[in-house]
Specification:
binds zinc ion; 10 strands; binds 5'-O-[(R)-(carboxyoxy)(hydroxy)phosphoryl]adenosine; 325 residues; 2 domains; Nucleotidyltransferase, domain 5; alpha/beta; globular
Length: 325
Amino acid sequence: MILSIESSCDDSSIAITEIATKKLLFHQKISQEQQHAHYGGVVPELASRLHAEALPRILEQCRPYFAQLKAVAVTSEPGLSVTLIEGVTMAKALCMALQIPLIGVNHLKGHIYSLFIERESCFPLTVLLVSGGHTQLIEAKSLDEMEVVASTMDDSFGESFDKAAKMMQLGYPGGPIIESLARSGDAKRYSLPLPLKQHSSIAFSYSGLKNAVRLLIDSADQEEYPHIAASFQSAATEHLIHQLKRYFKKHPPKTFAIVGGASANLHLRNRVTEVLTPYKAELLLTPLFYCSDNAAMIGRIAVELYLCQRFTPINSLHVSPRSKL
Ligand code: KG4
Ligand code: ZN
């Protein structure tokens, strides 16, 4: 079995995955959303302290598995340095105490493997990764061959939902709040600019849209918020769709996936499904429960890394806020 730890942002999570069957045996996650809601976003120092409390509490429940552990895996990049260090330090201590190897995991690859928590992995894949920190289009050929073919020039898709919610003082995280508010709104009420319409290469940008939403909110009554939320969600999604359509013209998709916290958005899922229909492409989706940060996805990729004996010497595993796939 492998014990995996995730602490790259505001979720403290530990999982146990069986190596032979790749099955998830134990999974727990303690979210810090409520503690950060007050500030309208994640406060790194607070997040770090909350991980230091939550991770040992979850680990205590894993004691019965300790004797059967063959390795410990941990997210080491990308993420907030002060929160990553909590998981990495715990992982190193466990490896030393239990005399088992350490596996450093890239969080973004972890999100891609969230697709395979309940199934066998399959490649090649074209992946749209939409989270709080990233908006990337990735060509994933295998565990080792993953290439970012487009990414955001400023804010990420998920972050733009967080900022829109913050501007309307609706709380954090903004994604689920905006999505549910948008259900009672009219998406055609306001027309918002489509970002990077004339841009030559394929890329994403959300800062212009954020400013347009700010201007709308400044001049609107609260009764208009559902319509603003719906118009914003539609514009944010149509930007992704527009760039995907352009990309697909040159690279017709065969198997396409959406991963990351914001891939839980049903409007986005529906729009991508429509765009894929003419290509008869298969759409892979992460079970809703595993879209946001969790240790189950870290455990799932760690099994593959374990099977190729890809261990990280304890002294050379460092945390990094950024990463290359
Ligand atoms: O992957 P994740 O849990 O953390 C990062 O790795 O960043 O993603 C969190 C992000 C937040 O920005 C959150 O607002 C967004 O995903 N999100 C959503 C939805 N659920 C979560 N965005 C849009 N619609 C949703 N339903
Ligand atoms: Zn994430």
